[in-house]
Task: inverse folding
C-alpha cells in the first residue's frame, strides 16, 4: 500500500542547521553526553543508578517470541523477568526519537547502526499480529488491553510510533515505520465504536498525537480516524457505571496495577487520566499535567487537520485556563505532587510545586500545535518561557543529572523533615525509577529546529530566536533564512534572506510580550510596527530578494514581574526576568536565609558575566535589603525569641546580591533557591 | 495495703470555684453540651456522625469475660465485633476524666450514677489478672503486649488511670482507682529490666504521666519506679537490631497493625514514637507532637519528684527547642500532617499546618509540670497562649463541633483541589473516627481550676487570670484568694485575700511578656516591680492578712507581632495580638482574597463588640490596605494576565477591616482565614 504523505507543518529538521552558541552547546551536550549516557542507562551499564532494564526487557520479550515460534523452551523465558514500570518501553522509544533528531544534524554511522540494531530488537519483540509491549509479552501475555486505565500499552505504542516517524524522516528507512504501521493497523482492529471492538482509550494519552504524526507521514486516513476515535471516546459514559474504566475494571475482578493512593486509584481518579468528561465538556485544566498536555497536543493537531471548530474552541479554552490561571512564571505546570497534577485556579505554591519537566515539554508541544492552528504570540511566548526556564532547568549543565520536579523555592535544610517536600530534590539526580524526563529533554532539544519557524500559507513566523540556517520553499522557490543572534543574552537579532529569485511572502516576527519597545529595520530602514502587528507578530510582506535582511532589536530590560493579585502565594513578591529568562537567587551567591532579602523599588541591575559553572551566562548584580536580626531586645528575653511581640519597622541593611538564570540553578552544590522575592517598596 | 499519698502540686479542684464570665461559659458548655453530646457519641446515639462504639466495645469485652467465667457460650461473643481504632478505650477514659472534673464544680447525681455504671462496665471488662483492653480482649486475646509500638495498650491504660485518679479525687470512691491499681500491679509484673519481664515501653507515651499521678494519689513507690522504667528504657538499643520494636516485630513474623505510610511504618519510624534515642540524647523536638508532649509531661513530673538533674536538663532543652523554634504563635505544635509531627527548626507553614488540638493540650500539661519544677513565665506564657488560642479554637462556640487540625491560614476554595491540604477542614466537624480531641478539650476545660495557681513552698504563683475563689493552706492556715477580672478582654485583675490569721507568704503574679508596662498596687499602694520581678513573676512577700488586696493592671495594647527572621514562612508579615489573644482576619468581615490586605505602620485599632456568633468577644477594627486589581493595562493584553511583566508600585486602597480572636474563627460558615498579614510599611 502506498501513501501520499500530508506535509507536516514542522520544518524538516534536515533543512535546519542550528549555529546558535547557546543551543549548539546544548545540542552537543545531548549528542556527546546525554545520548550515550542514556544508552548506558537503558542498558543497565551505568553503575549506582536506578536500573532501567529497558533493553533487557526487549531482549527477554524477543527471546520469548522466538521460542514460541520455534515451539522451543528456552530457559531465558523462565528465568528472565520484566523489570520495573509497565511503561518502561517508552524510555527506549524516546531515546530512539532523540537519536533520530540528533542524526539529522550530526550524522554518526556507529550511532545509526546502534539505532538500527535496536529497531531490529524491537521488531523481534513484535508479535505476528503487530502487537508490541514487553510488559504484557513477558508478564501477562493473556491480558493485553484488559487494563487501559493503568497499563500504558497505547502510551508506549505512541512513543514507538513517534520514534519510528522521526527515524523515517531522518534516515528514509521504512523498516521501523512499517513495523509501527502494522502495530497501528492491528490496534485499529481492536478499538472502535463497532460492537466487535473495545470501546476503550488509553489511561495516558500519547497515541493520539503520535497517530496524527503517523497520519502526516503516511497519509493514511485511518490513522487520523483512529486518533479521532480515541479523542472523542474519552470520557464517554462519565456519569454512569458504563464508563470504560469501570467496565474493564469489573471484568478484571478487582485486579489492579497501582495502589499507592489506594487500590485501583488510577482507574477511579478519572480526572487524573483526563477521562472524567468528554473533552468538549472540560472547562479547566485538571488531573495529571503530562496527560493533559499530551492529550491536547493531539487534539489541537486533529482539530487543525479536520478544521473542527468545537475541538478548536476546546483547545483554546483549556489553553487559556492553563496559562492564565495555573502556570508558573517558569512555564511550569502541575502544582502538586499527588497525582503530578493541576490544582485549581490561582493556586501555585512555590516550595511544594511539582512542575514536572515532562509537563513543560508537553506544554511546548501543545503550544506548537496551537501556533500551527492559529498563529498567536500567546502560544509562542509560553513555548519560549517553558523552554528557557523549566525545560532547561530539567538538565544539569553536565548533561548527566536531571530534575524531575522543578520548584521555584527550595530550602534544603527543611526538606528532609517536612513531608510536604517529599517529592522535592535540592540537586539534580542521575536517573529515576520513572525515567520519563531525561530522554524527553533529549528529544526536545535535539528537535529544536522544528520550533524556530512556523510556515503557514505564505507567512513565515519566527517563533524562537535561535541562530540558524533554514531552507524553506515558497512558490517552489527555495529560500534560505539565516538567523544570527546571541539569544537569550543579547537583544540584536538579524535575519537574512538568500534565494535565486525574488518571491512575495510575509515574514512575521514574534514581538515577545516581555519586550516593551521592539524595533525592526528592513535593509537598514527602520519600519513602523503599528500597522503590521497582529497577534504579537510584526508582519512584513514584500517581494523578498536575495540579501534582504531584517534587524530586530528586542530590548532586554530587567523586569520586575508581579503576579495576578488573586495568586496568594506571590502577593507582595516580585520575580526578576530579562528577555525570556526568569532569574532566581541562590545561596551560593547570596548566603543563606534568602527569604530575608527584599527588593527595593530603587534597586538597579548590572549585567555581569558568570564564572565557574555559570561561565557564559549573564547574571544580574544588584543590591537587596536584608532584614536584620532581632533588635527589639527590650521587648524580649533573648534574641532567640520566635515572636517579637511589638515589632518596630524592620531595619534592613543593603547587601550586594546576584540573580542567576533559573535554568542554571542547582549547579553549584546544595543550597537555597528562590524565584519570588519580597517587594520592599 | 494502705498508702500515704504524696500531695500533688495541682490545686485540689474542689477548692477552686471558677466564677469567671469567660470560662464559666465554657465550663457550662462542657457540662451542658459537650459531656452529654460526647456520651451520646460514645454510645453511638448521635445520628450521622462517625461511630465511636466505645461503650459497645466494653460491653462486648465484658460479656466475653463473663462467658469465659461461666464457661458458657454466648452468641454475643461470636457475633459482636470490636470496632475501629485500637485505642478506642481512651475516648471513654478521657470522657470519664472530664466528668470527674465537672462533678467537682457541678455535682450531678444522675451523671455520677452514669459514671459509676460506666466504671462497673469497665471493671466487668477487666481480666482476673487486672488487664483491661477491649481491643485485645475481643479481637486478639492471645496477643497481649506483642505490639507495643503500634497497639496502644499502655496508652489506654494511662488514660484509664488518669480517669480513675480524677474520679477518686472528686468522689472519694476507691472502686475505679483500686481496679486501676490492680491493672498497674499486673503491668508491673510484665515490664521491667528483669530477664523474666518484657523490656518494652509504649509506642504512645501517656502511662508515664498517669503513673506519676497514680503515685501521688497512692504514694506507692512502685508506680513511680514503673514510670521511671518506661522513661529510661525508651530508645534503648536505638542503634542495633535489638531495639525493642525490632525485637517484638520479628517475633510477630511480619504482622503489623498500621500500614498507611507503608507496612509497619509505626514500628519503623522510631522518631514518630519518641523511641529513636534515649531521652537524654534528644536534642530537638521531633516525631508525633502529642506523643512528645505527653512523654515529657511525665518526664518533667518524674524529674521533679526525683530531683533528677539530667532529666530536668533534658526537659528544659526540649522545651526550649519546641517553643523557641517549632511553635506557632497560637501555641500550636506539630507542623505537618504526615505523622502529625514536628518538622524542623524554623519551619512553620501556616496553610499546611497540622497543629492538632490535642498537641496543644499536651503542651499545657507539659508547661504545667515545668512550672511546678522550676517556676518561670516562659512556661505559663506558653500555657496561656496555647489555651486561649489553639485549644479554644478546637471547639466551636456551640460545644458540638471540633477542629482536630488548626491551620493559621485557610483558603477553602483551594483545599479540595490540592492534596497538601488533605488534612485541613475549613469548618469544625461533628466527630472524628480518631476522636481524641473532643474529650481532651472537655477534660482540660473542666480541670482548668488546676492551672490557675502553682503553690510551691511558700510562694503562690498566679499563672492564669481567671476570676475564681480558691482555698489554699499556708502554715496550716486556710487562705482564700478571690480573683476578679474580665480576662482576656479587660486589663484589670484584682486579687483579694481572706483568712483568719495573718500569714507570711509570697504571692507571685505572672507578668505576661506581652504586657510592656504592668502595674501593681497592694492595698491601694502602687509598688515598684523592679526588684521583685523574677523569671517573669512579681514576688510580693508580706504577712498577708484578711482583706488585703492586689490590683494588677496588664495594659492590653494591640501588638504587631513579627516572627524571628529565620522563619521564612512569616517574613514580611505581621500578626495582631491583644492580651493573650492572637487575632485573625476572616472573609465574613473582610471579603475574599484576604492575602491582598496589608497593614500599614500608621494603622490604628479600635476595640469593638462582636455581634451574632461573636457576641461577647472583643474585635479589633482598623483600616487595611487592599491591593488593587491589575492596572498595568498598557503592559498586558488583558486584565487576566497571570504575570504583570513590568510592575509599577502596587496601588493600594484603604479598606475598613476587622480582626477577630483566632479561637473564634470559623463560627460563621465557610470562608477564608488568615493570621499573618503582609506588613505594608
Result:
Amino acid at each position: 500500500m502506498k501513501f501520499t504523505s500530508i506535509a507536516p507543518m514542522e520544518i524538516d529538521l534536515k533543512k535546519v542547521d542550528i549555529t546558535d552558541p547557546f543551543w549548539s552547546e546544548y545540542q552537543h551536550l545531548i549528542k556527546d553526553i546525554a545520548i550515550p549516557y542514556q544508552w548506558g542507562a537503558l542498558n543497565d551499564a551505568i553503575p549506582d543508578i536506578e536500573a532501567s532494564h529497558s533493553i533487557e526487557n526487549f531482549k527477554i520479550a524477543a527471546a520469548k517470541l522466538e521460542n514460541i515460534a520455534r515451539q522451543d523452551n528456552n530457559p531465558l523465558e523462565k528465568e528472565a523477568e520484566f523489570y520495573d514500570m509497565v511503561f518502561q518501553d517508552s524510555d527506549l522509544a524516546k531515546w530512539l526519537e532523540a537519536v533520530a533528531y540528533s542524526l539529522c544534524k550530526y550524522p554518526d554511522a556507529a550511532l545509526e547502526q546502534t539505532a538500527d540494531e535496536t529497531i531490529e530488537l524491537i521488531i523481534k519483540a513484535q508479535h505476528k499480529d503487530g502487537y508490541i509491549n514487553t510488559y504484557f509479552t513477558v508478564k501477562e501475555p493473556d491480558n493485553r488491553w484488559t487494563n487501559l486505565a493503568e497499563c500504558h500499552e497505547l502510551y508506549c505504542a505512541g512513543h514507538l510510533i513517534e520514534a519510528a516517524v522521526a527515524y523515517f524522516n531522518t534516515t528514509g528507512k521504512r523498516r521501523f515505520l512499517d513495523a509501527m504501521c502494522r502495530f497501528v493497523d492491528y490496534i485499529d482492529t481492536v478499538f472502535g465504536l463497532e460492537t466487535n471492538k473495545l470501546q476503550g482509550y488509553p489511561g495516558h494519552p500519547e497515541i493520539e498525537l503520535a497517530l496524527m504524526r503517523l497520519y502526516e507521514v503516511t497519509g493514511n486516513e485511518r490513522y487520523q480516524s483512529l486518533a479521532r476515535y480515541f479523542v472523542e471516546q474519552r470520557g464517554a459514559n462519565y456519569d454512569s457505571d458504563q464508563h470504560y474504566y469501570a467496565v474493564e475494571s469489573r471484568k478484571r475482578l478487582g485486579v489492579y496495577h497501582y495502589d499507592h493512593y489506594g487500590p485501583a486509584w488510577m482507574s477511579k481518579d478519572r480526572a487524573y487520566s483526563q477521562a472524567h468528561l468528554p473533552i468538549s465538556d472540560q472547562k479547566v485544566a485538571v488531573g495529571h499535567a503530562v496527560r493533559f498536555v499530551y492529550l491536547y497536543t493531539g487534539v489541537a493537531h486533529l482539530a487543525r487537520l479536520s478544521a473542527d471548530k468545537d475541538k478548536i474552541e476546546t483547545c483554546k479554552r483549556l489553553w487559556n485556563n492553563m496559562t492564565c490561571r495555573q502556570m508558573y512564571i517558569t512555564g511550569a505546570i502541575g502544582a502538586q505532587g499527588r497525582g503530578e497534577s493541576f490544582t485549581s485556579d490561582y493556586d501555585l505554591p512555590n516550595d511544594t510545586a511539582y512542575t514536572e519537566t515532562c509537563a513543560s515539554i508537553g506544554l511546548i508541544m501543545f503550544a506548537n500545535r496551537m501556533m500551527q492552528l492559529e498563529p498567536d504570540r500567546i502560544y509562542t511566548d509560553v513555548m519560549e518561557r517553558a523552554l528557557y526556564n523549566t525545560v532547561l532547568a530539567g538538565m544539569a549543565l553536565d548533561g548527566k543529572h536531571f530534575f524531575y520536579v522543578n520548584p521555584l523555592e527550595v530550602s534544603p535544610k527543611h526538606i528532609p523533615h517536612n513531608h510536604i517536600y517529599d517529592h522535592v530534590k535540592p540537586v539534580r539526580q542521575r536517573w529515576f525509577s520513572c525515567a520519563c524526563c531525561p530522554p524527553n529533554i533529549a528529544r526536545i532539544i535535539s528537535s529544536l529546529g522544528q520550533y524556530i519557524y512556523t510556515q503557514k500559507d505564505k507567512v513565515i513566523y519566527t517563533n524562537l530566536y535561535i541562530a540558524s540556517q533554514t531552507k524553506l520553499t515558497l512558490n517552489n522557490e527555495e529560500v534560505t533564512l539565516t538567523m544570527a543572534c546571541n539569544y537569550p543574552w543579547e537583544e540584536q537579532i538579524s535575519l537574512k534572506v538568500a534565494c535565486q529569485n525574488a518571491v512575495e511572502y510575509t515574514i512575521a516576527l514574534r514581538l515577545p510580550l516581555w519586550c516593551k519597545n521592539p524595533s525592526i529595520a528592513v535593509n537598514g530602514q527602520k519600519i513602523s510596527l503599528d500597522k503590521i502587528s497582529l497577534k504579537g507578530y510584526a508582519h512584513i510582506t514584500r517581494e523578498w530578494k536575495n540579501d534582504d535582511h531584517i534587524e530586530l532589536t528586542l530590548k532586554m530590560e530587567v523586569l520586575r514581574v508581579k503576579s495576578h493579585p488573586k495568586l496568594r502565594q506571590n502577593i507582595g513578591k516580585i520575580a526578576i526576568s530579562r528577555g525570556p529568562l526568569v532569574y532566581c537567587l541562590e545561596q551560593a551567591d547570596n548566603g543563606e536565609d534568602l527569604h530575608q532579602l527584599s527588593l527595593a523599588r530603587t534597586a538597579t541591575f548590572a549585567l555581569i558575566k558568570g564564572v565557574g559553572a555559570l561561565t557564559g551566562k549573564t547574571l544580574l548584580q544588584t543590591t537587596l535589603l536584608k532584614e536584620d536580626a532581632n533588635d527589639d531586645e527590650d521587648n524580649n528575653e533573648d534574641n532567640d525569641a520566635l515572636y517579637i511581640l511589638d515589632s518596630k519597622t524592620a531595619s534592613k541593611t543593603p547587601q550586594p546580591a546576584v540573580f542567576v538564570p533559573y535554568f542554571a540553578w542547582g549547579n553549584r552544590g546544595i543550597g537555597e533557591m528562590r524565584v519570588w522575592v519580597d517587594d520592599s517598596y
User: Anything to note?
Assistant: Chain B touches chain A through 71 residues (CB under 8 Å). Chain B is about 35% helix and 20% strand. Residues 632-637 of chain B have pLDDT under 50 and may be disordered.
